[in-house]
């Protein structure tokens, strides 16, 4: 039964399965047959279907074109869809063509069934693709709005990497990398390139991928907080809805999602509340850095930036390069270049000015056109220079318009009355401001000065005024001054400014009738018109003009409104009668009118408040001056022969300021002055002060005196510079009751050679205890025992504000303070300088050390016999950090000093100590550690000297070594190590148990000097002896007089930056080569520089000998170029500027012949040698040869000298020699030839045989000469002047030659005078300085002044 059922079931299943298979197979065969039978129909349907797709595509294409015209960005999916449709269209067209071609080929032939099948199948598939694309083409949107432009998309053409922008960029980049700095300000005057710099920084940040996002937003003058937030959001791809705090929160949340983001806010004019915008930074978001630009440094202050970076103007050479790039090649033609350079110079290094003027000048071909452009710029009237007014002047005028007060605006405009590059003193501005009444609501002179200073500082912060090198002065940038003149000359301001333009005649053709302020200062006016029509003029500046014809009597007839008149520095011999008509005159300056002898006419000027008679030759101050009851300021400084009638000064009851510098006041005159109740400022020379009686002044004298300089040594006035109240007296033999009021008020006190009986200095001011004193210098006051003795009655605030103490030549000084110090005493002392105090033993008592602990920055102890220890930390509170601000320690000639520091010192002490100088301390055995039987013991805790940069040890005979390895490993910042004349030193680094010297020791050391160390046997005394240090920063080594030293820790890979080794003597050259080297090739890596004493010209030395004050002036002959001592070159400003220009020329492929010119003795040869040495060290040339040409050049000698440097011998015939020398020079790919002391044209190519220019582009020639004309006759490509030294640099050079003796208080004024007489001429300074070295006789120094004068003019 079961089997039949199963069989039946099997049949049913098999029948059903077979039927399904047959149906499926038939369906498959039918579709396949359809490809074959209906292939044409399928191709036709594909074409119909695609035609519909084409219409859709065309519609989308039209939408795409419309979107593109609107600047929108096409969606990627649309672009990809269009590409697919275009590809499919090609395939469909090809298929149609294939069908047509096949039908033509098959006429009369049997059909190709296989091809028909494939075609039908392909058409079916393509139709499905068309239908799919048609569905995909139903886009919601075709395009979207473009994103805001990124920093990378901004044009880069405006940025040029000049030195000033490079310096600013480095500072900004360093700040950006500092984790502690989040808000960085960039400031500078308008047009200096702040925005361009910011954009370049942004580009670099994106390129280097240092930030995940970099965003720039322009803030502008009237910032819209919500708009700034929206722009930041858009750059992050975010739409910011709403406003106020909710929007700020959303933006802040989004910004925090960026791990590192830089936000650049351009053109900020006032404080911006970043949190109101929604910018988190600092602790709120440490990864957010904000960069802002502003024209005002005060905006950076208001924004509380972590760093503020000034963008300075361009150097002269950079300015020229930028100007050339804008003005075109015409500026390099011989006719145009000189005036074009002057045009570029007028732009004052301001990039915007250079670009605008350069573009405006582009295409100027004729010299006359350039001359006119220069004249327009000089006169601040560039009306015909296209773009200058609109693009440059209007841009800078915006800074003026944004000044907050009218007072700031008028003071700024007043500054344009001075000539270009003038050092505008605040004192001058004050005297003029009082005259015009510029400042409202201030009447006392002291208040006016304060207001002027405040306004000047505000203008400096706005970058409209620049700081000056002169104390109390500011300057106007040339272009900013031009803009100020432009502003002041239009509308209703009525300025007429022709200062410093070489004007020789009164401007008759100008309309001066409406002018209020006329400045013709600093010109060549010889004569003035009889009666100019200037009825509205309020200020007239005619100073610094000859006016040899005098002032016509009627000149001031029509100037009734005049309030300020300056006739200083003119040659007028008398005052015109019309001066009496100036009844409104408030300020009259007649300073340095040295031919003017009578000023009777001044008595008519009853409103006069300011009268300047500085350095006039007026013999007697007229009695009638006493009638000027409104006079507030009288300046009779340096009127050395001026007689002042009795009781005249006392009549000037409103006098607030009296200046009598170099004008002696006897006791009667001083008593008169003391009665002036309103007197606030007094500068007076009291020659006979030491003879004044005790009580000749009233008790209530000097009630309102706020600022004074009182002195009795003629040249001591120059010592006053930092403080408002200065009192300097010398040779006093009694306690001078009259001076006590000054002693109680003074901030700067000098007491020299006082012989009174006071042993406790504070007794001089028992009432105040010198509480307000800031600087104290006592010298040769041999009865002084201490400055403060609190065992006696003493004020609790004695020496409260004292910052600087100089104690020199005090034979009986035993201690600085005696007894327990009061709470406020000596707590601000920054500098303590002690010299030649024979009995001073305990310099830093425990009490004093605790008091100066936090304030002391510099300590110098020199030539004191008693001290055995400098710092004794015993007895101090445990755990206290000691001397955290001490940066410099100088110890010289301390014969009994055994240790510098003793006692327990806490970790973290002395952390700022950067310079230590120890000299002639023969009992000093240890500096940093002391030797024990069990090893060594540190005198100070680890890390104490981590910031030490400079260590100089000389003539200390007790030192056997300097460091232990553990100490060396802490000297991570040491840059200079100098050891001289330490005969007992055996090792620099001694052996230490358990610690080895590491290869990476001294990582920042740049200079190493080991001189006259006769027992030095090794640098390192531990194992292994053959250790080599890496010396990654070492650039300079000087060695000499170390005969026992056999090895230096320098290996094959050591000191990659070291190019030369300076040895002290001839024997040291051989010694250096014979040292034990790991690799015999190591010494050949270095250029050996043999130092010899610099040569001196015999003529100058002979002149000085004739004065009878010098023992010897002979010198060896000049050294050859290879052996020139680098010490002769000092990096002063003038030399540095000249060197930079020369190296720029050397690197310029277009320049081959470069001239250096300057007066004799200015340092041209020294500069040339330094350039040659540096060029060789830096491998700029394959060969460097120096030859002296001299006044009578010998061509043969010049040829053979060059040949000798190149290692060849020349034939005797000069013509053959020239040909052979030229051939040899051409073999040097790059060669530098130095021709020193050229006096006339040399035929370098034809006669000497030096090929250059087109003949040999790799040959550069550098010449020195005393005449600029020689540079022109030699047709040099550029000529670089070498100027004399500045006063500051002159002083530095003189001190390096004359020694510390010039700091002696007796000699310092004389040494200043000697330096001054040398007139900045290096040769004169060096010769005179060496001749006076170590000389402490005042009479010799007094005789040196004429010798110095002669040396400077020789």
TrEMBL record:
SMART domains linked: AAA
Presence of the UniProt keyword DNA repair in the record: no
Start and end residues of each AAA+ ATPase domain: 180-315, 1150-1286
Superkingdom, taxonomy of origin: Eukaryota
Keywords: ATP-binding, Coiled coil, Nucleotide-binding, Plant defense, Repeat
Membrane-spanning intervals of the chain: none
GO molecular function, one term: ATP binding
Coiled coil: 78-105
Any Pfam family the entry gives: NB-ARC
A single BP term in Gene Ontology: defense response
Similarity comment: family membership: Belongs to the disease resistance NB-LRR family.
Protein known as: Disease resistance protein SUMM2
Organism: Cocos nucifera
């Amino acid at each position: 039964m079961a089997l039949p059922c199963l069989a039946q079931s099997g049949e049913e299943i098999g029948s059903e399965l077979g039927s399904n298979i047959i149906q499926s197979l038939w369906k498959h065969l039918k579709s396949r047959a359809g490809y074959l039978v209906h292939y044409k129909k399928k191709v036709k349907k594909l074409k119909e279907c695609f035609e519909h797709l084409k219409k859709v595509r065309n519609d989308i294409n039209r939408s795409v074109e419309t979107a593109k015209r609107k600047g929108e960005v096409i969606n990627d999916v649309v672009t990809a869809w269009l590409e697919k449709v275009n590809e499919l269209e090609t395939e469909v067209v090809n298929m149609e063509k294939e069908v047509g071609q096949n039908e033509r080929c098959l006429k009369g032939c049997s059909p190709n069934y296989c091809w028909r099948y494939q075609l039908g199948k392909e058409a079916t598939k393509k139709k499905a693709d068309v239908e799919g694309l048609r569905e995909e083409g139903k886009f919601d949107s075709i395009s979207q709005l473009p994103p805001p432009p990124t920093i990378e998309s901004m044009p880069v053409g405006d940025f040029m990497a000049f030195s000033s922008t490079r310096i600013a960029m480095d500072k900004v980049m360093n700040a950006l990398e500092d984790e502690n700095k989040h808000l960085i300000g960039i400031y500078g005057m308008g047009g200096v390139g702040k925005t361009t710099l910011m954009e370049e920084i942004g580009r670099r940040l994106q390129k280097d991928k240092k930030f995940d996002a970099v965003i720039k937003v322009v803030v502008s003058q009237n910032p819209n907080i919500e708009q700034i937030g929206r722009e930041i959001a858009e750059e992050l791809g975010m739409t910011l809805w709403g406003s106020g705090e909710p929007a700020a929160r959303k933006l802040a949340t989004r910004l925090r999602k960026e791990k590192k983001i830089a936000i650049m806010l351009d053109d900020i004019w006032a404080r911006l509340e970043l949190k109101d915008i929604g910018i988190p930074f600092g602790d709120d978001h440490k990864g957010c850095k904000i960069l802002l630009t502003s024209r005002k440094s005060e905006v950076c202050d208001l924004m509380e930036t972590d760093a503020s970076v000034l963008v300075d103007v361009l150097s002269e050479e950079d300015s020229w390069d930028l100007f050339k790039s804008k003005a075109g090649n015409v500026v390099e033609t011989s006719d145009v270049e000189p005036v074009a350079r002057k045009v570029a110079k007028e732009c004052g290094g301001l990039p915007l000015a250079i670009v605008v003027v350069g573009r405006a000048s582009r295409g100027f071909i004729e010299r006359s056109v350039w001359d006119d452009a220069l004249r327009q710029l000089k006169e601040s009237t560039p009306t015909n220079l296209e773009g200058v007014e609109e693009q440059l002047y209007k841009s800078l005028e915006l800074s003026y318009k944004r000044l907050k007060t009218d007072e700031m605006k008028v003071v700024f405009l007043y500054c344009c009355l001075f000539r270009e590059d003038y050092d505008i003193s605040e004192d001058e501005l004050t005297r003029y401001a009082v005259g015009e009444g510029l400042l409202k609501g201030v009447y006392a002179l002291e208040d006016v000065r304060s207001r002027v200073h405040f306004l000047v500082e505000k203008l400096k912060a706005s970058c409209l005024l620049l700081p000056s090198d002169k104390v109390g002065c500011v300057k106007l940038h040339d272009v900013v001054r031009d803009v100020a003149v432009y502003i002041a000359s239009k509308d209703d301001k009525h300025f007429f400014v022709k200062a410093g333009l070489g004007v020789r005649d009164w401007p008759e053709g100008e309309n001066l009738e409406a002018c209020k302020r006329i400045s013709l200062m600093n010109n060549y006016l010889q004569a003035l018109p009889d009666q100019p029509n200037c009825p509205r003029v309020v200020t007239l500046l005619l100073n610094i003009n000859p006016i040899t014809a005098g002032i016509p009597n009627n000149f001031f007839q029509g100037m009734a409104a005049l309030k300020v008149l300056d006739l200083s520095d003119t040659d007028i011999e008398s005052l015109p009668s019309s001066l009496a008509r100036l009844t409104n005159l408030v300020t009259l300056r007649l300073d340095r009118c040295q031919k003017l002898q009578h000023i009777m006419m001044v008595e008519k000027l009853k409103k006069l408040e300011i009268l300047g008679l500085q350095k006039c030759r007026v013999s007697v101050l007229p009695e009638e001056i006493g009638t000027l009851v409104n006079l507030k300021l009288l300046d009779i400084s340096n009127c050395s022969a001026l007689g002042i009638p009795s009781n005249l000064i006392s009549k000037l009851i409103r006098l607030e300021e009296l200046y009598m510098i170099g004008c002696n006041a006897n006791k009667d005159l001083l008593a008169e002055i003391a009665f002036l109740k309103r007197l606030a400022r007094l500068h007076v020379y009291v020659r006979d002060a030491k003879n004044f009686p005790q009580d000749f002044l009233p008790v209530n004298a000097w009630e309102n005196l706020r600022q004074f300089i009182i002195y009795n040594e003629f040249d001591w006035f120059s010592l006053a510079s930092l403080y408002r109240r200065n009192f300097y007296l010398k040779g006093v033999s009694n306690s001078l009751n009259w001076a006590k009021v000054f002693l109680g008020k003074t901030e700067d006190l000098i007491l020299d050679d006082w012989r009174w009986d006071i042993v406790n200095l504070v007794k001089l001011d028992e009432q105040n205890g010198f509480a307000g004193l800031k600087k104290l210098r006592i010298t040769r006051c041999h009865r002084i025992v201490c400055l403060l003795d609190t065992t006696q009655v003493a004020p609790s605030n004695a020496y409260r504000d004292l910052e600087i103490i100089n104690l020199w030549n005090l034979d009986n000084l035993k201690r600085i303070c005696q007894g327990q110090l009061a709470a406020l005493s000596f707590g601000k002392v920054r500098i303590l300088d002690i010299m030649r105090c024979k009995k001073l033993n305990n310099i830093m008592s425990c009490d004093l050390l605790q008091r100066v602990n936090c304030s002391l920055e510099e300590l110098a102890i020199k030539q004191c016999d008693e001290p055995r220890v400098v710092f004794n930390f015993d007895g101090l509170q445990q755990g206290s950090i000691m001397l955290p601000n001490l940066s410099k320690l100088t110890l010289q000639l301390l014969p009994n000093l055994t240790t510098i520091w003793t006692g327990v010192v806490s970790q973290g002490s002395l952390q700022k100590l950067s310079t230590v100088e120890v000299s002639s301390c023969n009992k000093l055995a240890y500096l940093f550690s002391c030797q024990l039987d069990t090893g060594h013991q540190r005198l100070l805790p680890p890390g104490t000297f981590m910031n030490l940069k400079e260590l100089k040890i000389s003539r200390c005979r007790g030192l056997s070594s300097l460091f232990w390895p553990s100490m060396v490993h802490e000297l991570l910042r040491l840059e200079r190590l100098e050891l001289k004349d330490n005969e007992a030193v055996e090792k620099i680094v001694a052996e230490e148990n358990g610690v080895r010297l590491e290869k990476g020791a001294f990582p920042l050391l740049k200079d190493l000097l080991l001189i006259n160390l006769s027992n030095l046997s090794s640098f390192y005394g531990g194992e292994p002896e053959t250790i080599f240090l890496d010396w990654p920063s070492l650039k300079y080594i000087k060695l000499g007089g170390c005969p026992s030293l056999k090895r230096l820790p320098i290996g094959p890979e050591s000191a990659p930056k070291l190019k030369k080794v300076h040895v002290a003597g001839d024997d040291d050259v051989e010694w250096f080569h014979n040292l034990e080297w790991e690799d015999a090739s190591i010494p050949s890596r270095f250029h050996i520089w043999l130092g010899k004493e610099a040569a001196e010209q015999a003529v100058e030395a002979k002149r000085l000998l004739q004065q009878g004050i010098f023992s010897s002036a002979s010198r060896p002959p000049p050294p050859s170029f290879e052996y020139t001592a680098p010490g002769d070159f000092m990096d002063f400003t003038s030399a540095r500027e000249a060197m930079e220009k020369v190296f720029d020329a050397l690197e310029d492929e277009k320049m081959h012949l470069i001239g250096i010119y300057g007066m004799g003795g200015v340092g041209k040869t020294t500069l040339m040698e330094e350039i040659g040495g540096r060029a060789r060290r830096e491998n700029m040339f394959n060969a460097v040869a120096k030859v002296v040409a001299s006044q009578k050049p010998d061509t043969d000698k010049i040829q053979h000298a060059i040949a000798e440097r190149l290692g060849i011998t020349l034939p005797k015939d000069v013509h053959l020699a020239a040909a052979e020398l030229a051939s040899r020079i051409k073999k040097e790919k790059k060669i530098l030839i130095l021709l020193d002391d050229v006096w006339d044209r040399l035929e370098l190519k034809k006669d000497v045989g030096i090929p250059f220019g087109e003949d040999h582009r790799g040959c550069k020639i550098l010449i020195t000469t005393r005449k600029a004309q020689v540079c022109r006759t030699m047709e040099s490509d550029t000529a670089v002047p070498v100027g004399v030294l500045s006063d500051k640099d002159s002083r530095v050079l003189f001190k390096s030659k004359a020694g510390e003796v010039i700091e002696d208080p007796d000699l310092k004024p004389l040494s200043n005078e000697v330096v001054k007489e040398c007139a900045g001429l290096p040769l004169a300074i060096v010769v005179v300085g060496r001749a006076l070295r170590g000389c402490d006789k005042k009479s010799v120094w007094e005789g040196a002044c004429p010798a110095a004068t002669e040396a400077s003019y020789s």
